[in-house]
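Hey, quick one: can you model this chain's 3D structure?
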Amino acid sequence: MAWSIADVARMSGVTSRTLRHYDDIGLLVPAYTGSNGHRHYGEAELLRLQQILLMRELGLGLRDIADVLEHQVDQAAALRAHMRRLAAERDRLDALVRTIGRTIAELEDDKDTDTMEKISSPENLFVGFDTARHEEAADERWSRQAEQSGQFAATLSEADMEAMQREATAAMVRMAEFLRVGTPVTDPAVQAEVESHYQGICRMWTPSAAAFKALGQTYVDDPTWRAAYDRVAAGLAEYQRDAMAAYADARLS
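Sure thing. Here's the predicted structure for all 253 residues.
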């Protein structure tokens, strides 16, 4: 049995345009193309598309996916490996749900207490967050850098991730204190914090001035990141963004 490109797009949620792109780059070639130019896909192609989508969910770029598929011998074994990675991602998301639940409970426990005093264990604010991942828009504009970030994340142990999360929380608390006392974002002490933030990102990829500014903007625009910053201190997401923009203008332009 064969399915048209429209059928596959409807079943998978992948647009026809994307399917044609996958064909053009040799990632997913149709079973055959009719005399009218219409692409048709068989069961083998549907299974391959499933693998592609699984690897996209796991953060792999198209070049890496093509390499995996090219060297893959046992399809069932490959799927088992994908399933293990998805199970690990599920566990991470479960941890993230517990993190947000604890934060909500602490915030609701005493609504009259200052935000910074409500959080009894700020190091727990980011348990479950994958600090090596960034906004999808950044993936689209800087796909190579986003792939490098994903590759770096894959090398980290659980202990490494926990250490990064603790440092991320500590850095946010320090920035929140600068915000609380009204320190300008151009102040050397604030910029030293941003320098540390930038150097941490450079372990994964090296942002240009525009990319670093865009990353700062995601902390404001992305609901998850904004909530994380603003649970430490109201307005912290904007303060972090502005400090990063000042750093980019002064050091990266």
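One thing worth noting: The beta strands are 3-4, 32-33, 39-41.
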